[in-house]
Structures are given as C-alpha cells and as structure tokens.
Amino acid sequence: MLLSEFNQADSAAAESALRPCLDIQRWIDEVAGARPFGSVAELQSAAAVAAKPFTSDEVEAALAHHPRIGERAAGSSTEAKFSQKEQQSLGEASPETMAALAAGNVEYEKKFGQVFLIRAAGRSKPEILEALQERLGHTPEQEEPIIQEQLRQIALLRLEGVISE
C-alpha cells in the first residue's frame, strides 16, 4: 500500500493494513489515528513511539500469533506470510541446530509460559539458537523488556513491507 493510500484510507482499511505488522489494538489505533503522515519515515517514527511501552497483556496477545522459531506459520493470512518469509530467511541449519532450537523452544515455554520471540530477519538459525540459550538464563523481569523490543523490531520491519512511498 502506498503511504498516500494509507493516509486516505478509512479507519477499517488502515487498521487492516497495520494488524499484520503487530496485532495490538492500542498500537493500531495510535498509528492509524496519527494520520496523515508526510513520509514513511514519519510513519515509522510514530509507530515506534506507539510501541513503547507495551503492557504485559499486550505482549501476551501479540505472542499468541507468533509461531515457534524453526516452525512454519500456519495459514495464508498476511501475518502468516510475513512469518513464513522471516523464517525462510534464516537459511538452512544442521539437524543438531534444529533439534537444539526445538528443545530450547520447549524449555523457554516451560520457564516463561510463552513462545520465544526474536526478530528473525537478518539472523541465522545458529545466531538465534545462541540468543535463545542466553535468554534462557534470564529472569522474567530481565526477559520482558527484551520481548517488547523484539516485538517493536518485528512490527517496524513488517510495516516497511506494508506501506511504501
């Protein structure tokens, strides 16, 4: 969608464009409500500001839509397609790395009660495994701001793929 189209879209269409980037209604409302934007950079800036901070409930709701790292997102929604593309960009990994990711995902979920979330774009599976292993050593209080930052990064990257000049 072009920025001019986003600026002129009705509320429902604007929300529909934003939802695959980050399914947090407050964020969607704030970004859509701040229109019109003079540039994509201005949109990105407003989206970043609206993404700070997230509440625990918002994080929980957003994580409900994210597949485990190393697993393919189900469905054909725009959000699923984003996730599939992001996971495909991770490249190949050894069976040992894939097994370690799967085991780490399970351990993370047991410890924190939610999926392990990381911006996959620009990272390899071994890099993600290293981050997962490091983050398993965190407390919930240490992990929460990291998860929020990863959600922000994912949202802004997806926004780049949705709205252009």
Overall number of strands? 0
User: What is the residue-averaged pLDDT?
Assistant: 88
Which percent range describes the beta-strand content? under 5%
What is the number of independent domains? Answer: 1
Q: What is the CATH-assigned architecture?
A: Orthogonal Bundle
End-to-end C-alpha gap: 9 Å
Number of helices: 9
- What is the helix fraction of residues, given as a range? 55-70%
Question: What is the CATH topology classification name?
Answer: UraD-like
**Overall morphology:** elongated
**Which segments are poorly predicted (pLDDT under 50) over 5 or more consecutive residues?**
none
Question: Secondary-structure element sequence?
Answer: HHHHHHHHH
The CATH homologous superfamily is called Oxo-4-hydroxy-4-carboxy-5-ureidoimidazoline decarboxylase
List the helices and strands and how they pair.
Elements: H1 3-8, H2 11-18, H3 25-33, H4 40-50, H5 56-63, H6 78-88, H7 95-112, H8 125-135, H9 140-162
Helix pairs in contact: 2-3, 3-4, 4-9, 7-8
